[in-house]
Amino acid sequence: MDQEKIGRFIAELRKENSLTQKELAEKLNVSDRTVGNWERAEIYLILHCSFHYVRY
Q: Taking 90 as the threshold, does the pLDDT of residue 18 lie above it?
């Protein structure tokens, strides 16, 4: 899976769970800018954060 697909997947899951980028960031203990960067595929994801997100 490439970074753009991962970013779209994160955004899709976040929206399905009615979370804002800020709310998701708080749950993952990262900044809302980081979540936005992930969704735009501007930076690489850290795997443990990805697995943590799937639990929500």
A: yes
Residue 49 banded pLDDT, cuts 50, 70, 90: low
Q: Which CATH number fits domain 3-55: 2.30.42.10, 1.10.940.10, 1.10.10.60, 1.10.260.40?
A: 1.10.260.40
Residue 3 in tokens: 């970074």
Indicate the domain borders of the chain: 3-55
The whole model's pTM is what?
A: 0.71
Alpha-carbon distances of 24 from 9, 28, 41, rounded to whole Å: 14, 6, 16
pLDDT, residue 41, reads 81
Q: Residue 6 and residue 21: Cα distance in Å, rounded? A: 15
